[in-house]
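Hello,

Our lab assistant flagged a job as stuck in the queue for most of the afternoon. It eventually completed. Since we weren't sure the result was trustworthy after the delay, we are filing this so someone can double-check. Below is the sequence as submitted and the structure that was eventually returned. Let us know if re-running is recommended.
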Amino acid sequence: MKLDRRKLVTGTMALGIAAGLDGYFGLNGRSGFGPASAEAAAADADPAELAKPGPMGDMALGEEDAPVTIVEYASMTCPHCANFHTETFPKLKEEFIDTGKVRFVFREFPFDDLALAAFMVARCAPEDKYFPMIDILFEQQSTWAGRGADPREELFKIAKLSGMTREKFDACLKDEEIARGIMAVRERGANEFGIDSTPTFFVNGKLLSGNRPLEEFENAINAALG
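-- returned structure --
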């Protein structure tokens, strides 16, 4: 999924979106993104700079001292991201994350207000429910993000699976601090690492762009392992 750099949300815009829930989804669920631009095209990144978390901290799977770190920037409304997470990621997790070879860091890079809303809901869930929520959101992407859907109600159905009440759900989508934190991750990804499409991966700082097959991840990981 390619970023229209003219529609990159700023932190201030994110606060406006979070404060106005009705306009947040709008009739079409895709409004409110203001202008900004990335500093440079995506390229290999300094692992030390890449390792710096956003204001809310990183969400990660695997051992902290794993020899290889994969950082993914993804959008919840990105079909290529959904395909990666439903088809490739389970095998990657079994082969490398669960065996202690890889630490997987997942970073929010919403392309539109609906993706931002989905990320906010995942962040509002208990921490141990974050990745299960991400999995379900990707698996059911066509349901809550599809044309003709009522995104607020469909997202609430998913949120309830984590034990979230309607009251907490509504409050979550108006939480300016969470919106600001997510957008800070996105802005840094675009401006410091040149990210303009999702999914974008870094394997120990080496760029791997797009929805790649498992074999390419295996090659990149094995090269990093030496």
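-- support follow-up --
The delay was a queue issue, not a problem with the job. The result is valid. Residues 1 and 78 are 6 Å apart (CA to CA). The chain has eleven helices and five strands.
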